[in-house]
Amino acid sequence: MSAKLRRVVVCLDVDAGRVKKGVRFESLRDVGCPVELAARYEAEGADEIVLLDVSATVEGRATLFDVVRRTAERLFIPLTMGGGVRTVEDFERALRAGADKVGINSAAVADPELITRASERFGAQCVVLSIDARKNDAFPSGYNVVTHGGRKPTDLDAIAWAKRGVELGAGEILLTSIDRDGVRSGYDLDLTRAVVQAVTVPVVASGGAGSAEHVASALANAGADAALVAGILHDGQTTVGAIKSVVRDAGIEVRA
């Protein structure tokens, strides 16, 4: 049996129709057009694109389905959309706009059964549970779930929530370390490893990519099925192709 192919996923954080990037979800700066950037990263070899409307939940508005549609029209690789999704109808709108998968975070915490309703209607493969976690020693795993773009703490333990989300029907976990987001010091390998070991679905490591070596480490040492990158690509520090080359040199099989 051949080894499992790992993925390099590029994240585009969208605010007011433009891709933005910040540190720990704050101090956002403009980095470009989501449609153009998505097409560029696909050409570089990205396996998937994640398009996150980073202000929809905070502002209490619907997500930018027109941006999803225009982006999906340019892509041949899978597209995950997240941000501002609150209902099964929002799932349907996102999928009709061209998304292959839909990520939910704050809405799932507020209404866990939304995971089940969406999974039963569209299939678990379409449902991504996005978990933003912050270090907090008051919780059994040492990590607390936060929502609303990292602004609102919950009473949920991150590992326990990941397990419950999968039990409810999530087909993938997008796991972001708020502490590492935008800092470029490397992924939180302890957090990632703990979630990988706790669930039976693919886990995408997010938050902290500062180099191709960090990506390789998340895949090899923490067992993530995929690693999400953003800022180091937006700034031209590296390319998807260069990241994949380093990952392959580390003995990890990734998609062509």
UniProtKB/TrEMBL annotation:
InterPro entries xref list: Aldolase_TIM, His_biosynth, HisF, IGPS_HisA/HisF, RibuloseP-bd_barrel
Predominant location: cytoplasm
Pathway: Amino-acid biosynthesis; L-histidine biosynthesis; L-histidine from 5-phospho-alpha-D-ribose 1-diphosphate: step 5/9
Pfam family of the protein (one): His_biosynth
Its job: IGPS catalyzes the conversion of PRFAR and glutamine to IGP, AICAR and glutamate. The HisF subunit catalyzes the cyclization activity that produces IGP and AICAR from PRFAR using the ammonia provided by the HisH subunit.
Record-stated family: Belongs to the HisA/HisF family.
NCBIfam families for the chain: hisF (TIGR00735)
Protein name per the record: Imidazole glycerol phosphate synthase subunit HisF
Protein species of origin: Pendulispora brunnea
